[in-house]
Amino acid sequence: MLIVGLVLAGVAALIHVYIFYLESFAWTEKRTLATFGMTAQEAEVTKPLALNQGYYNLFLAIVTGVGIVLTATGSTAAGAALVLAGAGSMFAASLVLVISDPSKRGAALKQGLVPLLGVLALVIGLAA
């Protein structure tokens, strides 16, 4: 289960790298506007906030990735702590999204399901 948890956490990290790209580089593009349900005017106004939020997503992905590498190379305690912090924060952010705006439950599900599964599998794998 440990490997399953690391793979799922890795997929979650990749999803968050993609979210970073959308929020930090493609925020005003037509496809991103449709993805986030915004107008071009809304995107222009929120562009600085999205840039900052994008980097938060990137940093969560990096923490998770470093944790995966550490766990895979034998530093299980430190690595698992980083994976749990990174993926757990991804899941927690998805809860904030759905609680603050229930109409965004689809986005929250996309953002939070894989990290949650990764955390659960990792915890089960560590307990075994």
From TrEMBL:
Transmembrane segments: 6-22, 55-74, 80-100, 107-127
UniProt keyword terms in alphabetical order: Membrane, Transmembrane, Transmembrane helix
Keyword ATP-binding annotated: no
Domain of life: Bacteria
Protein name: DUF1304 domain-containing protein
Membrane among keywords: yes
Taxonomic path: Bacteria, Bacillati, Actinomycetota, Actinomycetes, Micrococcales
